[in-house]
Amino acid sequence: MSIKVDKEAVAELKSILAEKEITDTTIRLFIAGMGCSGPQFNLSIDEKNDDDLSVEEDGFTFVVEKGLVDEFGGFSIKFFDEGGQRGIYVDPEVKFQGGCSGCSGGCN
């Protein structure tokens, strides 16, 4: 499966969308940016495209571009609640192997 979603993450998504009165249920996983520690992933409301892989989970359709699955092997969407902070995060199966130790003036 290209996307795994834990039940706590689904419950948190339902809560967030209900609070904002959003009724759309197609959630896109995407790269939001790239930094020294690798790609940062995020979620947004979107529509499914022909080149997407998708999974249905508890009334939601989670979609991701096939190329991202090829590159990162799939994703887990998880809920966290630690140290007074809570939210949802995306964890790729294939981890970024890099870093910026020794970079001066920024990393590319």
Task: Outline the structure in words.
- The protein has 108 residues and is α/β, with parallel strands linked by helices.
- The protein is 19% helix and 45% strand.
- It has helices spanning 7-19, 66-72; strands at residues 3-5, 26-35, 38-45, 52-57, 60-65, 75-82, 85-92.
- The strands form 2 sheets. Strands 3-2-5-4 form a 4-stranded mixed β-sheet. A 3-stranded mixed β-sheet has the order 1-6-7.
- It is globular.
Please give a handful of descriptors for the protein shown.
single chain; alpha/beta; 2 helices; 19% helix
Order of helices and strands: EHEEEEHEE
- The chain-level mean pLDDT equals 89
**Main β-sheet, in a few words?**
4 strands, mixed
Q: If strands are numbered along the chain, what order do they take across the biggest sheet?
A: 3-2-5-4
**Helical content, roughly?**
10-25%
Per DSSP, the total helix count is: 2
Strand content: over 45%
Instruction: Give the class from helix and strand content and strand pairing.
Output: alpha/beta
